[in-house]
Amino acid sequence: MFAGESQTRPTHRVGPKVVDYYLLHHVISGHGVFETEGRVHALGPGHTFLIRPKRLFSYASDADDPWRYRWVAFAGDRAESLLAEAGLGTERLIVDTGPARAPGERCREIYDAFRARSPSASLEAAGRLHLLLASLMSADAERAEQPPMADTHGEELVRQVIGYLSTQYAEPVSIEAMAETLGYNRAYLSRLFKRHAGVTPIAFLTRIRIDRGKRLLRERPELTVEQVASSVGFPDALYFSKQFRRAFGATPTSYRTDTLRS
């Protein structure tokens, strides 16, 4: 068993890769995306996600609000049954503990036990792991007893789409491919996203790309407009300039010039 914690940098990515042990992450703050077995999950504070042995996975922190998490890695003959008792396993890899502080504290205690380097560190950490799984089970049960919020399915879909687009915007994103990855019909996904977010997925993607392009123009003066456009998912620099001017009332070149002067 081993443990740790990390405040990640924006867009920090791990994987795709496999490991030969169980790996639990608990998100303390910030946001990110976890992908495994063909599904993408947008996660935030209070979420705990499980990585299973020999299963391909990747995860990445949000560009604007990178997550901070604590993690615990473990193996053993009883690992599968202990996770099952806590409600985690093949069919369920994520627990939303909400505002509960206990899971994060138990992760920290496991980390602290190893840092102390005492002869009893492994035994203490093993005991704390049982308490961690118990805290996940308790927090999950408490949230299950709370009255359901209206249309949580739509809200979850919006979170998934935002998480996906926020990490994939620089690639040639296809709404059809995204819908298939997330497990939704394309028309249904687009309709529900617009109902909750107020814009279509394509419009939201364009806005992300324009905003990221604006940041690069400001922070990376050595890049040409063509390079900036390509870096944020616009293969056509003229189209990028057109969309940028529509959004901000200035061309990329004039915006950069004004920014550097100030």
From TrEMBL:
SUPFAM superfamilies: Homeodomain-like, Regulatory protein AraC. Pfam families: AraC_binding, HTH_18. Residues 159-258 form the HTH araC/xylS-type domain. GO terms for molecular function: DNA-binding transcription factor activity; sequence-specific DNA binding. InterPro entries: AraC-bd, Homeodomain-like_sf, HTH-like, HTH_AraC, HTH_AraC-typ_CS, Tscrpt_reg_AraC-type_HTH. The keyword Protease does not apply. Keywords: DNA-binding, Transcription, Transcription regulation. CDD domains: cupin_MmsR-like_N (cd06986). This is AraC family transcriptional regulator. It comes from Cohnella ginsengisoli.
